[in-house]
Amino acid sequence: MILVTGAGGNVGSNVVRQLLEEGEKVRVITRNPSGQAFPDQVEVATGDLTRPETLTEALSGIERAFLFPVLRGVDGFLDVAERAGLRHLVMLSSISVTWSVPGWVGEAHLRLERSVQASGLPWTFVRPDGFTTNDLVWASQIIDGEVVRGRYGDAATAPVDPRDIAAVAVRSLLDGRTGEGYSVTGPQSLTQIDRLGIIAEAIGRPLRWQEQSEDWFRDEMARLGMPAQGIDDYVDALTARVGKTAEVLPTVEHVTGRPPFTYAQWVADHTAAFGTAST
Ligand SMILES: NC(=O)c1ccc[n+]([C@@H]2O[C@H](COP(=O)([O-])OP(=O)(O)OC[C@H]3O[C@@H](n4cnc5c(N)ncnc54)[C@H](OP(=O)(O)O)[C@@H]3O)[C@@H](O)[C@H]2O)c1
């Protein structure tokens, strides 16, 4: 039995689906079992990763687990997992842990990685670049018109499809790839403006990027709950990416044996979210 946490999320939902396709037995943990629909074959346990007293039953009989990185800390989960006899833990992390200046986000994930390493449990870390799904934040502006407001339109990343992040995690779980830290990117370096162009082509109508001020961006990030230090570090990271080509890594193909999904493929599967030419 494999435990999947974060199973309603972008990555975890794909981990669940892919494990079921491989014929594995899956249990998920959620804080709100009535709030979401999981596949019928899945065992659903109620639990909160930040409250270890809720996890004992959910971890009983579990050999391997996919761990969502709750930034408040995973020590309680690790204690219960160790007592339950877990043999392999694959944790979602962030590519920023590998940067020379990890920033607030990278430091937060590094603390979790260190906790996992200190636990003595066999581990694998899956460290993605920015997710394709982050761009769903543009959906309401795209549905409403042709202007998308943002900052650092010329900053490039190699956006990675959560299906590929999940696929690396699933191969790690099933092939027993312990002691590995996999940095995972998509197959292309794309700026935000490039990505908007790909969405425009897919939905069949023009879209225009409207560059906003740094103050606007800072206010937006604060509104989303990012602390001041996180905002400073994010501004620095995006500024450093303007006009640069993002690193593209071969990890997905190396680990899974197939190429990663392109951004255009991801968009093609999400045109409904962005509206179509007829909306
Ligand atoms: N977005 C990016 O570009 C990016 C890049 C690198 C790394 N990351 C990492 O990936 C994470 C986001 O992954 P995602 O998009 O797959 O997540 P997501 O879609 O935001 O889903 C979050 C999931 O985590 C579960 N969860 C959250 N807190 C929990 C808790 N205390 N106890 C139990 N379950 C909890 C939720 O489950 P319930 O609500 O059902 O309990 C939900 O299923 C980020 O937080 C970051 O660590 C993101």
Automatic annotation (TrEMBL):
<dbReference type="InterPro" id="IPR051604">
    <property type="entry name" value="Ergot_Alk_Oxidoreductase"/>
</dbReference>
<protein>
    <submittedName>
        <fullName>NAD(P)H-binding protein</fullName>
    </submittedName>
</protein>
<dbReference type="Pfam" id="PF13460">
    <property type="entry name" value="NAD_binding_10"/>
</dbReference>
<dbReference type="InterPro" id="IPR036291">
    <property type="entry name" value="NAD(P)-bd_dom_sf"/>
</dbReference>
<dbReference type="InterPro" id="IPR016040">
    <property type="entry name" value="NAD(P)-bd_dom"/>
</dbReference>
<feature type="domain" description="NAD(P)-binding">
    <location>
        <begin position="6"/>
        <end position="174"/>
    </location>
</feature>
